[in-house]
Prior knowledge:
- The protein has helices at about 1-5, 10-20, 20-30, 40-45, 65-80, 95-100, 115, 125-145, 150-155, 160-185.
- The protein is an all-alpha fold.
- It has a domain at about 1-85.
- The chain is globular and about 50 Å long.
- The protein starts with a helix and ends with a helix.
Amino acid sequence: xxxAITGPWPWWISGPLLGLMVPLLLLLANKxxxxxxxxxxxxxxxxxxxxxxxxxxDWKASLWSIVLVAGVVVGAALAVLFLNGDSAPAxxxxxxxxxxxxxxxxPEALQPxxxxxxxxxxxxxxxxxxxxGGFLVGFGARYxxxxxxxHAIMGLSLLxxxxxxxxxxxxxxxxxxxxxxxxxxxxxx
Length: 189
């Protein structure tokens, strides 16, 4: 039984389970799946003075999404502690070759140590890349009114044209980043 929990699930099980999130949330709870707005709800809940109009709303109506995010964090911690969740899947040989063409060592985990290792954090260039990238992802998710998974799972299932445009933009941006921008950034390290 433990192998069924710790190992990867086939697409024909995990896909329909993920797909059931949409009708269950909509039909049973009248809620829309999304995680990127939870930071706004948390800030609205904990900030003592809400001078910013952005945080001045009834955040308690969205308390369920804060609980969802807390559940994700607790679930991840339980997976790492009890279900061997800290081991990364094997990196493909083509990914190793790609990293090598960029001058990065072959990663033992999913990310190369030259960028994500603890020794790399002493490099100002790496810090700028990580902090700048984190800011752009966070800003982009809020500017697009949702993250990639929120638009792709919830928005497309609701036949939202805005989500379709956002998902197309995410794909184009991801391709440009992977093929044009990232190799340049890595060459600066």
